Amino acid sequence: MEAQKKLAATMLRESMNSPMELSYDIFPKIHTHIYAWNKNYGKVFLSWHGPKAQLFVNDPELVKEILINKDGAYAKAMSREYVRKLLGDGLVTTEGKK
Fold first, then answer.
1. Is 58 in contact with 70 (CB distance < 8 Å)?
2. CA 43 to CA 22: how far, in whole Å?
3. So where are the chain's domains?
4. Phi/psi of residue 44, nearest 5 degrees
């Protein structure tokens, strides 16, 4: 876990030290480690953030299934008030039939 954190920090530091071309595609620059792991491991991969696992999903159909969550298989984390204000009362923050 520590090695993964150090690798991510090193990748971010190297990315920030190199100039960026003028583009709207900033994801590889901001989240260098996630971009690299996505290329290495595919559209769905597991990463650890301390004792918690993080599942990264970059497949549009699977993301849609997770967000719709008809049978309640995917629990949504309780979002903070500022997140609700930012995202609104949409698919990402809503629970239940609404």
1. no
2. 26
3. 1-42, 59-98
4. -130, 120
Q: Which two tokens stand for residue 10?
A: 């090193």
DSSP 44-80: EEEEEETTEEEEEE--HHHHHHHHH-TTS-SPPPPPP
Count of all residues that appear for the chain in the document: 98
Q: What is the pLDDT of residues 39-65, one digit of tens each?
A: 888 999 888 878 888 888 989 998 888
State the burial class of residue 45 (Cβ atoms within 10 Å of its Cβ: 0-12, 13-18, 19+). Answer: middle
40 Cβ contact partners less than 8 Å away, ≥ 6 residues apart: none
Q: Residue 62, Cβ neighbours under 10 Å: how many? A: 12
Which has more pLDDT, 21 or 2?
A: 21
Which amino acid is it at 77? A
